[in-house]
Amino acid sequence: MKSLCRACGETFTTVHNFEKHRRGQYSPSEPGYGRRCLTPAEMLEQGWRATARGWTPNVAWEVRRQGELDEIGPTRYLGEG
To answer: What is the mean pLDDT of the chain?
Structure first.
């Protein structure tokens, strides 16, 4: 099941992957609740890939799970395409 992040607008291939892109501790007493999203550049640096189904940190697993991979690639986020 895909998951859309309402904070950054990115889509993730699973709820687990959505949760992995969030950083910081949840704390209602901190401004912004102490949480933030990884940026697309940070996700690319950490080996994540943007696919037609959303961001995934493990492309090989997604290929096995879904039987195919529609790669969007990093140029979407780096201004090269």
So the answer is: 76
Q: By three-state DSSP, how is residue 10 classified?
A: coil
Domain ranges of the chain: 3-78
Q: Give 11: exposed, middle or buried? Use CB within 10 Å, 0-12, 13-18, 19+.
A: middle
The whole-model pTM stands at 0.64
Q: What is the pLDDT of residues 56-78, one digit of tens each?
A: 986 655 555 555 444 444 444 44
DSSP state of 39: P
Contact in structure between 68 and 52 (CB atoms under 8 Å): no
b/e for 56-65, b at 16 or more Cβ within 10 A? bbeeeebeee
